[in-house]
Design goal:
- With 305 residues, the chain is an alpha+beta fold.
- It has eleven helices and four strands, in the order H-H-H-E-H-H-H-H-E-E-H-H-H-E-H.
- The protein has a four-stranded antiparallel β-sheet.
- It is elongated.
Length: 305
């Protein structure tokens, strides 16, 4: 007797797939209705409510002049040299500096002036997305706007402002290095003059003094050579310091958002899931309501007896 009762309990706990399918068939209009409502909401939002968004990307890379890069980012490279090769550290420093400069007030203020931005400054910041690739040594900036023309103008203005800011940074760094180089040359010249003054006219300088004069002269020549290279680089800084534009702004043909097909597909899946749950809940509720009168009738029959 006991095994039979256990088997009946197991059978009662098992899910009857035929009953589930029958429930879905009985409540098919619930499922269809909820799914259609979800599709209608997604369609209205995608086609009538949500404004279109156009995106234009510009991809830039640091200039190829390694001497200029070492001069601008040399200190950062020396600090990061323990983590890897100097060239790799220099590249990471360049991209980090570019990333900070891409959304800086200097660049965005120039963009706002060029396009005649009338909205809040925070909205202008949100219009740009910055993506840095340290390994590839590139920086991609995407401008988003409600129209293709506005997105194109923002991206073009950003590219011009960014190139100008990068060149100005290189020019400022060069000027600082030139000042340091000039002070170094002046100091070495003064040291050489002092040593030469100790020789005196017709004097018989010692070997140590001659070695010191030769050493200072060699250092002076090296300092003068470094200064000459900086001065030559300063003459062409506008050309050699400009970032390389790998991908320039192009007028977009279609918006990137809202993604109507994706929204409808998601709405279809969610609508079906919610519709199935609603069908099972409605069926459970209906069975509960039917069980109440039956229980009352059985109670009345039992009391009559």
């Amino acid at each position: 007797m006991q095994p039979s009762m256990e088997r009946e309990a197991v059978y009662e706990d098992e899910i009857d797939l035929r009953e589930l399918v029958a429930t879905l068939v009985r409540r098919k209009w619930w499922i269809a209705g909820v799914t259609l409502i979800a599709l209608a909401v997604a369609g209205v939002l995608s086609f009538a409510v949500l404004p279109p968004t156009y995106a234009v990307s510009v991809q830039v890379a640091p200039p190829a002049n390694q001497a200029l890069l070492d001069m601008i980012y040399g200190m950062d490279s020396a600090v990061q040299g323990s983590a890897g090769s100097t060239g790799n550290a220099t590249g990471q420093s360049e991209i980090q500096a570019y990333t900070a400069m891409a959304s800086s007030d200097v660049v965005l203020a120039q963009v706002a002036r060029e396009v005649g931005w009338q909205k809040n400054y925070s909205e202008l910041q949100q219009s740009f997305a910055v993506q840095a690739d340290s390994n590839g040594g590139t920086l991609t900036v995407t401008a988003r706007a409600p129209s293709a023309e506005e997105a194109y103008r923002l991206a073009t203005a950003w590219r011009r402002a960014f190139v100008g800011a990068a060149v100005n940074l290189a020019r400022q760094q060069l000027d600082l290095q030139i000042q340091v180089g000039e002070r170094r040359v002046a100091g070495e010249e003064a040291a050489l003059d002092r040593l030469q003054a100790t020789l005196g006219p017709g004097g018989n300088p010692s070997t140590a003094t001659m070695i010191s004069v030769a050493a200072v002269g060699q250092v002076l020549a090296q300092a003068q050579g470094d200064l000459d290279r900086l001065l030559a680089l300063r003459q062409s800084v506008d050309a050699v310091a400009a970032p390389t534009v790998l991908q320039d702004a192009r007028l977009p043909e279609a918006p990137v958002a809202p993604r109507k097909a994706l929204n409808l597909a998601v709405a279809l899946v969610l609508g079906l899931m919610v519709g199935v749950l609603a069908a099972f809940f409605a069926d459970y509720w209906a069975r509960g309501q039917e069980a109440v009168p039956e229980a009352a009738a059985d109670g009345a029959t039992a009391s009559g007896r």
